[in-house]
Specification:
- The protein has about 110 residues and is mainly alpha-helical.
- It has one domain.
- About 80% of the residues lie in helices and about 0% in strands.
- α1 crosses α2, α1 crosses α3 and α2 packs antiparallel against α3.
- The longest helix is centred in the last third of the chain and has 33 residues.
- It is flat and about 50 Å long.
């Protein structure tokens, strides 16, 4: 049960981080986030990588839902995107937790 709790915790940390980053990016730009300009561009590679790391699961979800509405993706594709977003949120949560633990170790 400890593994399930740990997975749920890092998933929710990643989901919160992605939600916060995605909301801030959306407020700043006034556009729905996705893997499109101005969020991802070849000219600003470092910014694009940071945006994809921080809000990638939400960008992926928005793009998948848009494709579904336009009949370019089916239910199986949407399910695969949802599974990938869960893994992505979990990986983001692990990184955020590791950064937080290292910062706490330096302070304390």
């Amino acid at each position: 049960m400890d593994a399930v709790t740990a997975f749920a915790f890092v998933f929710l940390v990643g989901l919160c981080a992605a939600g916060l980053a995605g909301s801030l990016m959306q407020i700043a730009s006034g556009r729905t986030i996705g893997f499109v300009e101005p969020f991802v561009s070849r000219g600003h590679l470092a910014r694009s990588i940071l945006a994809a790391f921080a809000a990638g699961p939400l960008m992926l979800g928005n793009d998948a839902l848009r494709a579904r509405q336009e009949k370019r993706a089916g239910t199986a594709a949407l399910a695969a995107v949802a599974a990938l977003a869960v893994v992505w949120c979990s990986a983001t949560g692990i990184v955020v937790m590791e950064i937080a633990l290292r910062l706490c170790a330096r302070v304390g």
